[in-house]
């Protein structure tokens, strides 16, 4: 068997040798000793007996990077091609490949890997090692596999310049690009950590990124979460010791102090080179890279995360691009977010979050998910949780509260039709703000939640946009839209864009701002409101004022919201994480119905955000105008954003308008905008009428099928009373879990 054992620098230093080294250094340069000891400790504790295993395609720079990493850690460096394969075979790798052929070469290479053993080393794999499952399982047992992810175009350019002749799988009938694409599935299967490597990144920089990535992998303590209402200076020792991680906040949803969870150290940042490396990537590939950076592998390993992302976006979206960007007119582009199963942007989070939740929760407890919706969330969350495995459905149930008379007829039909054996919709005789506030109050009612846990073994959790996990998939599509414009040649990377979003609860807008913080060159985020324009007035004046305001029902019900929950996260950010100030502002809003930002904070806010609103009449006029000139039908929310974008953009850069829902969901308003005199009240008839227009985009497939199958089924309706809602929750738990 081929063995490489760790040599002296990796062994534990004996007490005598440590004392000798200590005396010599202390007598010469005490400060230098502290620096050297810190360096020795960090590098050796980083590696220990584990190997760092570098994996990637040929031309990724594994050998060069491995040598630099080994030098920095002062440990053995092993190149599988040169030090193992060629030593074992007594011939070059290219000669072996020519001698035995592609299939036999992979088997021989795998056998050599199975006989290999090392510890405390940096190992550079061959480009084809990951294609042998048994060999990879063997070497992975004692190592951290680091995938050097280099764009395919960069690899092809490197290999062409080097004139490499030993690419396993390359034959006269197969292109190099096909070989590299085929291999990606094996790299994705085995890696623990991904390191993005652009075309012009020096090997020294890549080596530093590898070390940083390994440190992150080994230290989940770096990625904890805090409440927007917690104060760093005022936190107790008990609070500091009780750290919360991604999996905790996914389950808990809302902080115990009523605040919202945010990452303590902020979001990760990508370099321009790293973003550019994703220009050629698919939507699913972009999602995996971005979410890997935001979710620590101790919470969800990269391989499991990849499986979840593939499940969420692989077959459940009708468009292969998942979130395509379409040119509308002039400098305006539409980000189409309605190709999911329930026809709204909520599908991006709610096809993913149920699987994240099911993975993170302990197996010893049942969970009831509470959701409040102003329309689109309801059907999306019901559909998402209905796609869980049967074993997960037995321990995870969901209840969706929505304003009984505050959603469109088709939205209501969807929510009722999407009910499953573990998921129910309850209409509330009030508005969305009551539903959302009620859920927050239930979560912070420790007597009630404790009773449910003790009596029924059931914990409550949230899947609304207040849940941190809901925001992450939205960051992905804002970043992806920018990369698509670069890929289409509309802009070069680094050129700014504006983004305009129909905004109610501020989650979608916050995700766009987070994408900007992570390195996407977004200039202005434009908030578009309907006549419920509290948020617009706040952005313009710094005064959030609910006094005397009543919710107005509009043709764009998803933004019929007066209390924008995710605004709290944004204010926490621009206030330099001053939890005490955030607590003060939102307590004042709750108790007095208003608050006012300090002048300095308003200045910061107005550097990031611009806001406008439009009436229902202007919304319908925009739908008619766009259809008349382009043949494209906007939904009512996208039309609100279009009107505001027309008013506020300065036309010096492209503007991406978030098309948050398919027009099919709001058929009566659309037919009215198209000036149809008589409108049948049956939702299915309305869709058939719309389909006769042969407009773009076509009628939504999933929505049509749902209405065909279900029609208007039964659902529960309750009064706007906290005790009534709590009674409903207890009854549902009894019926499902007991």
Automatic annotation (TrEMBL):
The gene is Thnsl1. Residues 236-313 form the Threonine synthase N-terminal domain. Its cofactor is pyridoxal 5'-phosphate. GO terms for cellular component: cytoplasm. GO terms for biological process: amino acid biosynthetic process. It comes from Ploceus nigricollis. InterPro entries: P-loop_NTPase (IPR027417), Ser/Thr_deHydtase_PyrdxlP-BS (IPR000634), Shikimate/glucono_kinase (IPR031322), Shikimate_kinase/TSH1 (IPR000623), Thr_synth_N (IPR029144), Thr_synth_N_sf (IPR037158), Thr_synthase-like (IPR004450), TrpB-like_PALP_sf (IPR036052). The lineage of its organism: Eukaryota, Metazoa, Chordata, Craniata, Vertebrata. CDD domains: SK, Thr-synth_2. Pathway: Amino-acid biosynthesis. Keywords: Amino-acid biosynthesis, Pyridoxal phosphate. It comes from the Eukaryota. This is THNS1 protein. The modification N6-(pyridoxal phosphate)lysine is found at residue 346.
């Amino acid at each position: 068997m081929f063995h490489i054992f760790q040599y002296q620098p990796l062994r534990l230093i004996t007490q005598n040798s440590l004392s000798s080294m200590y005396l010599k250094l202390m007598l010469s340069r005490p400060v230098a000793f502290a620096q050297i000891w810190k360096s020795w400790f960090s590098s050796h504790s980083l590696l220990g007996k584990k190997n760092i295993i570098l994996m990637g395609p040929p031309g990724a720079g594994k050998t060069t990077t491995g040598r630099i990493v080994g030098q920095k850690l002062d440990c053995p460096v092993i190149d599988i091609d040169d030090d193992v394969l060629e030593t074992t075979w007594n011939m070059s790798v290219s000669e072996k490949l020519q001698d035995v052929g592609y299939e036999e070469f992979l088997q021989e290479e795998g056998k050599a890997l199975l006989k290999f053993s090392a510890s405390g080393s940096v190992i550079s794999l061959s480009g084809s090692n990951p294609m042998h499952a048994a060999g990879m399982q063997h070497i992975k047992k004692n190592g951290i596999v680091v995938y050097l992810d280099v764009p395919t175009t960069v690899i092809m350019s490197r290999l062409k310049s080097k004139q490499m002749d030993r690419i396993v799988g390359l034959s006269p009938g197969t292109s190099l690009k096909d070989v590299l694409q085929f291999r990606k599935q094996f790299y994705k299967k085995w890696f623990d950590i991904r390191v993005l490597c652009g075309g012009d990144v020096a090997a020294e920089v890549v080596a530093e990124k590898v070390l940083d990535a390994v440190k992150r992998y080994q230290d989940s303590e770096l990625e904890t979460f805090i409440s927007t209402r917690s104060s760093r200076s005022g936190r107790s020792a008990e609070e500091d010791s009780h750290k919360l991680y991604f999996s905790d906040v996914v389950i808990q949803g809302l902080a115990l102090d009523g605040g919202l969870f945010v990452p303590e150290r902020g979001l990760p940042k990508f370099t321009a080179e790293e973003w550019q490396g994703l220009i050629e990537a698919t939507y699913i590939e972009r999602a995996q890279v971005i979410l890997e950076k935001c979710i620590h592998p101790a919470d969800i390993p990269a391989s499991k995360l990849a499986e979840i992302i593939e499940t969420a976006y692989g077959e459940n979206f009708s468009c292969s691009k998942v979130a395509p960007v379409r040119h509308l007119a002039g400098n305006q582009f539409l980000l189409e977010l309605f190709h999911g199963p329930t026809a709204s942007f909520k599908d991006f989070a709610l096809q993913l979050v149920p699987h994240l939740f099911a993975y993170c929760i302990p197996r010893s407890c049942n969970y009831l998910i509470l959701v409040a919706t102003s329309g689109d969330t309801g059907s999306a969350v019901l559909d998402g949780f209905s796609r869980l495995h049967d074993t997960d459905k037995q321990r995870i149930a969901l209840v969706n509260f929505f304003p009984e008379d505050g959603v469109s007829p088709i939205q209501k039909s969807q929510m009722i039709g999407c009910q499953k054996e573990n998921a129910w919709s309850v209409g509330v005789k009030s508005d969305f703000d009551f539903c959302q506030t009620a859920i927050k109050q239930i979560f912070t009612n420790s007597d009630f939640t404790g009773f449910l846990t003790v009596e029924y073994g059931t914990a409550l959790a949230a899947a609304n946009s207040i849940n941190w996990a809901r925001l992450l998939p939205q960051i992905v599509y804002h970043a992806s839209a920018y990369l698509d414009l670069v890929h289409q040649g509309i802009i070069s990377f680094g050129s700014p864009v504006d983004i305009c979003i129909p905004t109610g609860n501020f989650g979608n807008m916050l995700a766009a701002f987070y994408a900007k913080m992570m390195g996407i060159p977004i200039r202005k985020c434009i908030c578009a409101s309907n006549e419920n324009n509290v948020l617009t007035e706040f952005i313009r004046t710094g005064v959030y004022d609910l006094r005397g305001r009543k919710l107005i029902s509009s043709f764009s019900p998803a933004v019929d919201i007066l209390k924008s929950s995710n605004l709290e996260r944004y204010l926490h950010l621009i206030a330099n994480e001053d939890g005490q100030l955030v607590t003060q502002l939102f307590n004042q809003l709750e108790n007095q119905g208003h608050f006012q930002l300090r002048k300095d904070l308003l200045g910061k806010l107005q550097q990031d955000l611009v806001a406008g609103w439009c009436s229902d009449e202007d919304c319908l006029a925009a739908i008619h105008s766009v259809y008349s000139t382009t043949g494209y039908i906007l939904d009512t929310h996208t039309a609100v954003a279009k009107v505001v974008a027309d008013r506020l953009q300065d036309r010096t850069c492209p503007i991406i308008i978030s098309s948050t829902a398919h027009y099919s969901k709001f058929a009566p308003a659309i037919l009215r905008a198209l000036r149809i005199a008589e409108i049948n009240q049956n939702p299915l008839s309305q869709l058939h009428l719309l389909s006769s227009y042969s407009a773009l985009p076509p009628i939504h497939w999933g929505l049509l099928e749902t209405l065909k199958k279900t029609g208007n089924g039964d659902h529960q309706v309750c009064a706007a009373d906290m005790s009534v809602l709590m009674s409903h929750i207890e009854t549902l738990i009894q019926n499902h879990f007991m």
